[in-house]
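User: Please predict the structure of the protein below. I'd like the answer in structure-token form so I can feed it into my own downstream comparison script.

Assistant: Understood. Taking the following sequence of 497 residues as input:
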Amino acid sequence: MPLTTPDALKQRKQLLLVMLVFFIIYGLISFVNHYNFRTAALDLGMFNQALYAYSHGHSALYTLDPGGETFPFLSTHFSPITLLYIPVYCLAGSYSFLLIQIISVLSGAYGIYKVALHLSGSRHKVSMLILLQFLITWGIFSALAFDFHNNVVGAMFVPWIIYYFLQGKTVRLLLVSILFLMTQETMALWYPFIITGLLLNFRSSWTRRQLIRIYIPMNLGSIIYALFIILYVMPSLQGHEHNLQFSRYTHLGSTAAEIVRNLLTHPVQSIKLLFTNPLGDPLYDNIKTEFYLALLLSGGVFILLRPAFLIMLIPVIAQKMLSNNFAFWGTNLQYSIEYIPVLCAATISFFSSKKDRKPTILYLSLILTAGTTVRLLDSRISKWYFPELVRIYQPAHYRPYVNNQEVYQALSLIPADVPASSSTSLAPHIANRLKLYHFPVVNDAAYMALLKHEHDAWPMKDASAYLELIETCKKDPGWIIVRETKDIVILKRSTSQ
């Protein structure tokens, strides 16, 4: 039965209200953290610097490397979509990427709502339950609490890839797919698994002709693009023989070919590695267990019931769980974002597999997802969890650890586009320059902006050594103190030296 105009208007209002509420919630996470100097040189400072360079007609360089090296920005992750963000930068400045990330999440949520409408036969209530499950999943909160990352933007294109696949709208599917591939080189490895999973799960949505003329060429093109960028373009930009991203997998081999060969020739060990801690330090035990449990409670059980969706996650799970970096394994940071659209798509796919199924199972899934998110906001096994970054319901989230007004006034004394070196938390705010270094790297900096807190010692491992180095810099005759408060010191290179 077609919707009456009043019904359609009511549903749009409900949808807009939910989106507005979550825009506010997400903004309270991202914007408050940035204002309170809880964003970092890596990665928001790096992105802000790149966008400043692009918006002024320059090639973007990554000068914030803690080791003091300089690389082309695209050598860190190949994400040419960053060029499309320039108009937003002109409006929102250092908050641009945070705004883009929030809008992309809401766009992804609307995409999954459209997928749910399609699969459920335009059942609005059912689609709203899937939308809410998407919006409250812990992976989104974790990602928004830590700067900006293009893999978040990429993951939010997945619902639209699914939707346009189901709709059979090839041109729109191709356009969204191109944008998806532009977000990060790893997305090109993920893409064939997404399309393959869709082909297996929704056999009635495509024809043999479409398979041969559209989907197989798209998959092959994505694989060729991924291999070309990862194996040739990025190493060339990095000035190395092999892609530096492979350093996360050195325990599996020194080259891409060696890594793949070892995985294939030792399948039992490879599978075991997906669930165990290879670092030998018990401090990192159970991080993967916590992640898998959270995944199952947030819709992952439907992936087991609809195995084609598990195919979609093969490269994502492999990339995270085979890494030697424990941060990749858990529920923190941006490393869980790719699972969310697949979880929700599997949920609605299972629900819609039986006609006239009551939404009880969706309410249960929503409750379990919400409960998992609340539990992980309280505490988690995964390392590098800082609750003040994400608990918007507690005063600590809004309480700055420095005098914000004094720090912003001090930063205003640094001219734009002069080389500078800064503490990690200041870098995103003074990235409007082509040369910005990650203190203690100084190089040819004309200014130094340093926060006098142990919190800002990274990448130095010893906080006391960091504070001592600041005092040494202040006494150095080659530098003049421009402004100093309890929290910050601004130093200018002496022209007499």
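That's the full token string. The first helix runs from residue 5 to 35.
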